[in-house]
Structure formats: structure tokens, C-alpha cells
Amino acid sequence: MLKANAPKCNIRGNVVVEENPYFPERARIVRKFDLTRDVRFFQVRICDQDKVMTWTTNYKPGQFMMISLPNAGEAPFSITSTPSRPGLFEFCIRKVGRLTSKLFELKENDFIWLRGPFGNGFPVEMMYGKDLLFVAGGLGAAPLRSVLLYALDYRDRFGKIFYLYGAKTPDDMLFREEFFRMKERDDFECYLTVDADPTGLWPFDIGVVTSLFKYVNVDADNTVAIVCGPPVMYKYVVDEFLKIGIPDDHIFMTLERKMKCGIGKCGQCVVEHKYTCVDGPVFTLWDVKNIRTLI
Amino acid sequence: MRVFKLKRENFIPFMKGLSKFGELWGPVRKGDRYVYANEPPEKFVLNAIRTIVPAKKFFLPQKSTILKFKNNEWLEHYDVKKRVIFGLHPCDIHALNIYHKFYTRLYPDPYYLKNRENTLIVGLSCLPDENCFCHLTDTETVNEGFDLFLTDLGDKFLVWVGSPKGDESLKLVKDLIEDTTQKDIDEYVEWRKKRRSMFKVSLDLEGMPEILTFNYDSPIWEQMGEACLSCGTCTMVCPSCTCFDIDDEFDIRTDEMNRQRYWYSCVFREYSMVAGGHNFREARSERLKLWYTHKLVGFMSEYGSPACVGCGRCVVSCPVDINVITVAKALLKEKPDAFWARMASSNVEVQHA
Prior knowledge:
The structure holds two protein chains of two kinds. Chain A is of the alpha/beta class. Chain A is built from eight helices and 15 strands. Chain A has helices at about 50-55, 100-105, 125, 140-155, 175-185, 235-245, 275-280, 285-290, and strands at about 25-35, 40-45, 65-70, 75-80, 90-95, 110-120, 130-135, 160-165, 190-195, 205, 225-230, 250-255, 270, 275, 280-285. The two termini of chain A are about 35 Å apart. In chain A, about 50% of the residues are buried. The model of chain A is unreliable at about 1-10 (pLDDT under 50). By secondary structure, chain B is an alpha+beta fold. Chain B folds into two domains: about 1-55 and about 70-195, no CATH class; about 210-345, no CATH class. Chain B has helices spanning about 10-20, 90-105, 110-115, 165-170, 180-195, 210-215, 220-225, 235, 285-305, 315, 325-330, 340-345, and strands spanning about 1-5, 25-30, 35, 65-70, 75, 85-90, 120-125, 150, 155-160, 175-180, 245-250, 255-265. In chain B, strand 2 (about 25-30) and strand 3 (about 35) form a beta hairpin. Chains A and B meet through strand 4 of A and strand 4, strand 5, helix 2, helix 3 and strand 11 of B.
């Protein structure tokens, strides 16, 4: 991101700013389609050809980017794609506010602006050789898809993989067809459930996501559990993890906060002394016990 | 540290000499308070106590444009002036050091650094009033973070040199300064004793991290939350508060879009509100608790010292007396003389909008 007019600053501790962390990079929407009634999938590509590969390979699943549109503002969004499939960034965006409404008006070939990737992401190296247990609820499937696809792309580096996903109704399930196809794979276990099925056509489980734990069969001491979903879900899912016997520091969750800078400065994501944008958004259960008001 | 002597009659020429570095800013009177203003040195008040707004405004302005959007391109925008800032007290300089640590960690902030690089910081000694408590926060003297520092000994100033930039700037005034003698040093030691004896606030602030942690669920927070107006004054006047917000603003005159950064406050209701309307800190007491735990406990874990420098700005600014002193006193079970405590004990029902 080094620009000709970028400043070189040098003061007492020889702090040199090589690139302005507030400066957004232009990207093009190459594909978009609706996943559900109010969630849309965006594939974007950095316009600057020289940066495409470095940007799309050098990030961790679970990191996020700041997406902005001039005059509509800037907000953080989880990356749904995986660095093991470089070239494009993918995002699942729900229409909830000013910026996302503007994003929904965009067409293919329109520009958006990106900063990042920011945040700690999932410690994927630490998960090598371990069983993985994913639990997603609703829009929580967006950040988890990144690490799930990563694990499937490097399948031989991990033990057993379980993926449990619950949505309100079949219509609210993100990547529904993608997960249907995944259910047919025999190298990992994918279980889907819906809270209610008004269509009457749902062929799988009906019930809350914790009802899927009956299918789980992992080696507890050697398992990494990952959960993401609406705030109300965490407590129940974490209880199930603890029942299985997964240790505190092997339970990961990715959290949501308001962020304006993404680089640990603006303070709006602060929880006690942790800035969710740089110390998170991925936290362990130990962090949650230790830092009050985290969830 | 290099120390020189400056005779009092040479103070005005000394400041005028330094002003060759850049715009001269110093404390001047405004009503019954003081502000940093760009005025000639004759107007500077040498015994000024804390200014209304701290010197952070020079490094992170109340409102500034960081990026401009023009012809489908983003452009960086810097509005940097060379400035000499005179009259920062030791607590103010300690707060700037906190700022420096904070804004240069992880992703260094280019706007902060540009401003810092173009500023000559000239400190000035002070004598405490009844609201100062820098002797409790260990910020009554300062060893780094300034370029020059003046200690006012009546008929003369001691000029401490704190950085290469400060040393360089002395070349602008080399005819006015002279070497110190043993007599000056003795006078300085006497002056320090006198200053030390002038503090009036006495309180155990050192134990605050544990006390705050143990009192996390104390009903005192609820009582303060009842009185708090969420006006944000405490955060605006606090020299170590760093939070900001970013927003886009369309300028109809130039057809440009400006990305603005402006001061923001954790006591505002929207501070922790995310899209869809979920608010992680709906109650005022929750937001107050965040301010105090972040400042006195959280900062400690990250940087080894609390972020309070004892300047007393919150003490004189909060309309309902919620400040570091009254909060600490309440948590230490000493009854504070404060509006919010009286309101809590009188059981007055207050209607909030």
C-alpha cells in the first residue's frame, strides 16, 4: 500500500510508517448472489494486479476486512473465503444498516474499497493433527466457512472433522446447497438442522443446534472446538463442549463488536483492556472467563 | 540531562526565538479557566493551572480530515503545521507519552506521527491547586517526552533539554541561556520541597487495580449511573483518552467526500452499539465502569501503569462529580463529597429521557 505521497515519519523510537493503515484499496465486485432473503454473497478482486496474490494468500481464516463506500462509511466484515483458494475475497453481508443497504445496491463490476485483513484469526497451525468440531448458528456460518474450507483443503493435516450448523428455517441457511453437497463427502461429518420447517420439505434434523451433539464422536483432549453464532447461542454450545471434556483453551469463538479503525486505535471494540480488532475477534473460552463482558 | 539557566527578563525573547521553529501556542486566560492559544508570548500565563482541553488536541485534533475521495480515488490528507507548544505541565507530558505509546504500537498512526514530528514541546513547571493529584499517580516529575522543560524559580528558569530536537532548537536562542551554578541547584531542591508540601488530595490510588476488580459488581456503579448525564465531558478533557470515531462527510462546495476523524466517548450510548441495534453496554453504569476499568486496570495490564496522570481535569469538569477521586473514595468506603453520592443517599427519583 506504499504510495508516492505516503509519509515517512521518524521520531524518537524510530517509528517508521511504511503504509497508511487508514488507506483503502480499490476492489471490484466480480460476482454476487443472494444466499437468503437478506444475506448476499459477494466475490471481490483487488484491482491492483500486483497485490492480488499477496493480499489473498497472506491472511488467516477468521480475520476480517474493513469494507467502505465513499459517503456510506466503513464497517468490519468477516472473510468467508480461505487463503488456500487465493485470487478472490468473499463476504456474506446481511442488510442491516446504512452501509450494507448501499452495498446491496451495487452491481457486478462496481467498486468497493477494502482495508485489512485485520484481527488475530484462528490459530490454524495449532490445530494440526487435532479433531475439529465446528458449531455455527445463522450468520455465524460466514466466518466458520473460511476455516472449514481451509481444513478441507489441507484435509490430511487434521483429524476427524465435525461440522454442525443450525439455522432458523431452511430459507435462512447460508450456503445451503454447498453444505448439501458436503454432506455427501465421506471424509468429514456435516450435520444440518433448522429450528422450524414451514416448507415441510426439510430432509434433515429439526431442532436447536445443540441437538446435533448426539452425532459427535471426538477425542476430547485432542479436539479444537470452534463456535460462532448469535450471542444467545454461546452459553448452550459451550456447555456441550465442556460436557464432552474439551479444555478451555481449545474452545475458540469469534465475536462481534463495533469497529471503526480495525487497528486497535478507535477504541469502540474495547472489552476491558482488549481491543477486539487486534486481540480478537477470535477468543478462547479462557479469555471469556477471564475478561468480563466479552460475551 | 543538560540543564541551563534563563533569566526571567529574557523569557519573552526566548519564546520569540523559539517561535522561529513554528507557530507559538501557550496557555492564556479564557474566563476563569485557561486554554492553549496561538498568541504572542506576552499573553502567556506562567502560573496557569490545567487548561480546559488538554494538549492532545494538537496531535489528534477534535475533528480532522484523514482521507479525501475525488474522481473515484482516495487521497491521503494531512493538515500539519510546525508548532511550538509551551506550557505543558509534567502530567500533560506523561499523558502525551501514553499517547505516543498507544499511537505507535501495532499499526503506527501516520497522522499522529506527522503532528508529533512537527511539534516542539516546551514544558513548564507548575504549583498544584486543591484538585491536583499527580503525586498519587507518580507523574509529578517528568524525564522524557518533552523537547525543552522550564522550571520556574521566580527570578529565573531552569531549562532542561529532553531531546535532540530540543537541543537543536536551543541554537535559536543561544545568546539568552547560561550555565547553571550550585546556587541554582540548591534553589531547585528547595522549590521541589515546597511544591511537594502543597498537595491537598490524599488517597490510596496505588491499590486501585485490585479494588476496582473486586468491586466490579458494587452497587456504587448503579448509583453513579443514575446521576451520569452521558455528556462525555470526562473523556473529552481527559489527556489520556484516545478514542475516536470515523465518518464520511460530503462537501457540497468542492464536490469532495471527506473521511473525518473526530473525538468520541465511551460514555455515549452508541459507543458499543452494532448493526441491527444490539448494544453491548446499554446501561450508563456499564459504560462508566468501562471507562474506569480501562483507565485504571486495563491500561495497567497493557502498559504497566494506569492511564490516569492526576491532572484533575475530570475533577473540575464533571457536572455531577463523577471523577477519579470520588470514584476511588467511594470504592475505598470513604464517603465522597459529591453530587452523585448525595443524590444516591437522598433517594431522589430522577427522570431520564
